[in-house]
Automatic annotation (TrEMBL):
This is Bifunctional aspartate kinase/homoserine dehydrogenase I. Residues 455-589 form the Aspartate/homoserine dehydrogenase NAD-binding domain. Residues 2-273 form the Aspartate/glutamate/uridylate kinase domain. Its cofactor is a metal cation. Its EC number is 1.1.1.3, 2.7.2.4. Pathway: Amino-acid biosynthesis; L-threonine biosynthesis; L-threonine from L-aspartate: step 1/5; Amino-acid biosynthesis; L-threonine biosynthesis; L-threonine from L-aspartate: step 3/5; Amino-acid biosynthesis; L-methionine biosynthesis via de novo pathway; L-homoserine from L-aspartate: step 1/3; Amino-acid biosynthesis; L-methionine biosynthesis via de novo pathway; L-homoserine from L-aspartate: step 3/3. Bifunctional aspartate kinase and homoserine dehydrogenase that catalyzes the first and the third steps toward the synthesis of lysine, methionine and threonine from aspartate.
């Protein structure tokens, strides 16, 4: 036989109650032998309790009582609830007159909810032709006399149940009231909250059921509450021991006491969804899962009490006094943690008891305050407890580090030695983010990385498209979910917390809003977005002003923009200090050599103690293309320059390349990687723009490109034979000193030399070091272009996700 238990939400008016009847009917038709245990319908128990409170205060409860009755009758006018309604009328009237009620009376009131529920379902089943039998559990389950939370007397109860089921067996479906029972004097008692589940597991035990099916309104037990963690996954199988841990830590679908009768007889428990027939739910058996489960549970509405004092050190019995004083006031402590120095003790209590707990402790430690042994007792009101069940300390660093990276610093944490769980107290306003961060870290579910992209021109736009194209594959291979939640230009931003789609350009036009950087930060905060990365694909100085703010608000940074690394050395250091303080990263591999792995290589060589003595080469992709082509082809300088612009090799303002600033910046960035403290002003630059063309805006300059032609024709002609022009950067001098020599210049080199061999838009970097001697490490390849640069930025994003 299977025992089926239906909860309040399943039995609510409308779809619920009809579905419950359908489920039972179908099982009977299939020939299954079943027994049904029911809770009160909808929120009946809470409503009856509220009416009782109104009655005891002599308030007008009639309206609420009428609403309760109306709900119960609803479309079921032909079911007779007169007896139950009369009982309620009398009980409430009495309570109202007396201005008092006992737990005994309360049990009588609440029990009507289950009686009405079972009576109704029995009636509806009979209408369908099912041989249903209303079974009042008060005639079966006998308890001690403790009203409100009675304990079943097993031998007697079992005898009654077995006898009853012998009498009503075969095709009969017993529809049993959950939650309620009676004592030896035949008075109504109740089994406490979750009592209906308890009734169901007692029946399953007494009747040696093959399975207990608990029908709820959720698909089973999840790795975390899906309302708080959208990525939460259903757990297919659990062991009773694991379920017990979950039950203890607030997974209110289970309660420890309801599992014990099942464990005793090894009866599987399946948690099912009344409203989703196709779902197999979660199966709980005595078999331990191989890997051990992990799950997150949350205690909300708790407060953290902190007791501090130097004089507590080594004092005997402080904890005992805390517990005793609080126990005396019936205040339960869910977590206690104390430093080895015993100077501070933190304890978690229910939020509504925090004020009383503080007062109680202040009274208990009054003389210790006087002696200055205790200095303060404070309450942190808005906190929550997250318990990572199945977590031991060997791998706890992973979720913990992820929390810190996301700027969630737990106020307190503790673990059990054998129970394999770690609990963390966090500020309530960080709960949502903390849960999602931990969840992403401990489950083999994709870790979500939330990206804000600033600048969607050539590089930025290509990057967005590259990410959207590869996102699925990356998620499959690396379990990283790249979510672009913001795309901004200098005027507008498109904000989509679940990620922009391939139509982002049109969406930005249509739904983009004017913004300040603070609003993007706030958006990420309000939507609890974790693992934040801001990408700067602008060429803007103004945007770099936001870097420090972004880092302070938990963003890692990636930039193709070179400006931030070439502002004053003071800013350079301040940014790095802020990054360190906030444990954030800043990656900018594309700043020099676009997608080439240059910065990483130099960093590694330098960090490993390799003495870099000189770096020399063609640093600019656009100018490489310009001079490589112009040197060997019989074309006008202006024509080739326009081609470089059209191919997307130049800066947004091409004069930045031609005036040498772009190469100067790259050189300075490399110098600073070697710990040199040069400023931009230290770079000696050959400006390729003749003086008469330097003033004015970019558009007017582009209109006068032909004026460059005679200048460069002469330079080309003045070269030695078999020589070509190259615009190079050169970092030299004694690089062990504070500053190096940084030069950017146009040179004529033999076409057979390494520099002379460079083709297309390739950059070439010769890195001279002590160990490598005269033979430099050479890195060569495409040094400009939207696709390679965007790919380089993408690489930095992936590097960051791996560091996490
Ligand atoms: N093109 C290339 O080969 C390479 C470019 N880079 C760098 O990539 C960056 C982007 O270059 P492109 O895409 O070619 O430029 P672009 O001019 O095509 O795009 C720049 C974008 O930045 C936006 N923008 C400007 N100021 C902004 C602000 N304050 N806030 C938000 N958005 C702002 C503009 O609206 C535009 O969408 C530059 O810093 C460049 O130095 C780096 C390596 C190679
Ligand atoms: N304009 C730059 C682009 C890469 O940094 C270049 O030409 O190299």
């Amino acid at each position: 036989m299977k025992v089926l238990k239906f909860g309040g939400k399943s039995l609510a008016n409308g779809q619920g109650i009809q579905t419950v009847v359908d489920i039972i009917d179908q099982k009977v038709k299939k020939g299954e032998h079943i027994t049904v245990v029911l809770s009160a319908r909808g929120t009946s128990t809470d409503e009856l309790e509220a009416i009782l409170e109104q009655a005891v205060k002599n308030e007008n409860y009639q309206e609420a009582l009428d609403a309760f009755k109306k709900y119960q009758i609803a479309d079921f006018g032909n079911v007779n609830f007169l007896e139950e309604f009369e009982i309620l009328d009398k009980l409430f009237e009495g309570v109202s007159l007396l201005g008092d009620y006992s737990k005994r009376i309360k049990d009588q009131v609440l029990s009507q909810g289950e009686v009405i529920s079972a009576k109704l379902v029995t009636h509806l089943l009979k209408e369908r032709g099912v041989n249903a039998h209303f079974t009042d559990s008060r005639e079966l389950i006998i308890t001690d006399g403790q009203f409100g939370d009675a304990q079943p007397l097993d031998t007697l109860s079992k005898e009654n149940v077995v006898k009853h089921f012998e009498k009503y067996n075969g095709t009969t479906v017993n529809v049993v009231t959950g939650f309620i029972a009676s004592n030896a004097k035949n008075e109504t008692t109740t089994l406490g909250r979750n009592g209906s589940n308890y009734t169901a597991s007692l029946l399953a035990n007494y009747l040696n059921a093959e399975e207990l099916q608990n029908f709820t309104h959720v698909n089973g037990i999840y790795t975390a509450n899906p309302d708080l963690v959208p990525d939460a996954k259903k757990i297919e199988r659990l062991s009773f021991t694991e379920a017990n841990e979950l039950a203890y830590f607030g997974a209110n679908i289970l309660h420890a006491k309801t599992i014990i009768p099942l464990i005793e007889k090894n009866i599987p428990l399946r948690i099912l969804n009344t409203f989703d027939h196709n779902n197999e739910g979660t199966l709980i058996t005595s078999e331990a899962s191989e890997k051990g489960i992990k799950s997150l549970s949350v205690l909300e509405n708790v407060s953290l009490i902190n007791l501090e004092g130097r004089g507590l050190l080594g004092k005997v019995g402080v904890d005992a006094r805390i517990f005793k004083a609080l126990a005396y006031k019936n205040i339960s402590v869910s977590i206690i943690s104390q430093g080895s120095s015993e100077r501070g003790i933190g304890l978690v209590v229910s939020a509504d008891e925090a004020k009383q707990a503080k007062a109680t402790l202040e009274q208990e430690f009054e003389s210790d305050f006087y002696k200055r042994d205790v200095s303060s007792i404070t309450v942190e009101k808005d906190v929550s407890v997250i318990s990572i069940i199945g977590q031991d300390l060997s791998t706890f660093h992973k979720p913990y580090n992820a929390l810190i990276r996301n700027q969630v610093v737990p106020l307190l944490f503790n673990n059990t030695v054998t129970g394999k769980n770690v609990s963390l107290v966090v500020k309530k306003n960080q709960l949502h983010k903390a849960l999602n961060v931990i969840h992403g870290e401990i489950f083999e579910i994709s870790k979500k990385v939330n990206i804000a992209i600033f600048g969607h021109g050539l590089v930025g736009g290509t990057l967005i498209d590259q990410i959207l194209t590869s996102a699925k594959e990356i998620e499959k291979r690396k379990k990283i979910h790249l979510n672009i939640f913001a795309v901004a230009n200098s005027r507008k931003v498109l904000l989509q917390k679940n990620g922009v789609k391939k139509e982002w350009r049109g969406d930005l036009e249509e739904h983009g809003v004017v913004y300040e950087i603070e609003e993007i930060i706030k958006y990420a905060d309000v939507h609890h977005l974790e693992n934040l990365i801001a990408i700067d694909n602008t060429a803007s100085k103004e945007f770099t002003d936001h870097y420090i703010t972004l880092v302070k608000h938990g963003f890692d940074l990636v930039s193709s923009n070179k400006v931030a690394n070439t502002l004053s050395f003071d800013f350079y250091k301040e940014l790095r200090k802020t990054l360190e303080e906030n444990q954030k990263q800043y990656l900018y591999e594309t700043n020099v050599g676009a997608g080439l792995p240059l910065i990483d290589t130099i960093k590694l060589l330098h960090l490993s103690g390799e003495n870099i003595t000189r770096i020399k080469g063609v640093f600019s992709g656009s100018l490489s293309y310009l001079f490589n082509t112009y040197s060997v082809e019989n074309r006008k300088f202006s024509e080739v320059l326009q081609e470089a612009i059209d191919k997307g090799f130049t800066e947004p303002d091409p004069r930045e390349d031609l005036c040498g600033n772009d190469v100067g910046r790259k050189l300075l960035i490399l110098a600073r990687e070697l710990d040199l403290s040069n400023e931009f002003e230290d770079v000696q630059i050959d400006n390729l723009i003749p003086e008469n063309l330097r003033d004015g805006d970019a558009a007017s300059f582009l209109g006068r490109l032909q004026e460059l032609d005679p200048v460069y024709e002469k330079i080309k002609e003045d070269q030695k034979e078999k020589h070509v022009l190259r615009y190079i950067g050169d970092l030299s001098g004694d690089l062990s000193q504070e500053k190096g020599v940084l030069e950017v210049k146009l040179v004529s080199v033999p076409e057979s030399s390494a520099l002379g061999q460079v083709k297309g838009s390739d950059s070439i970097f010769e890195i001279y070091t002590e160990s490598y001697g005269d033979q430099p490490v050479v890195i060569q390849g495409a040094g400009a272009g939207a696709a390679v640069t965007a790919r380089g930025v993408f690489g930095d994003i992936l590097r960051l996700t791996e560091k996490g």
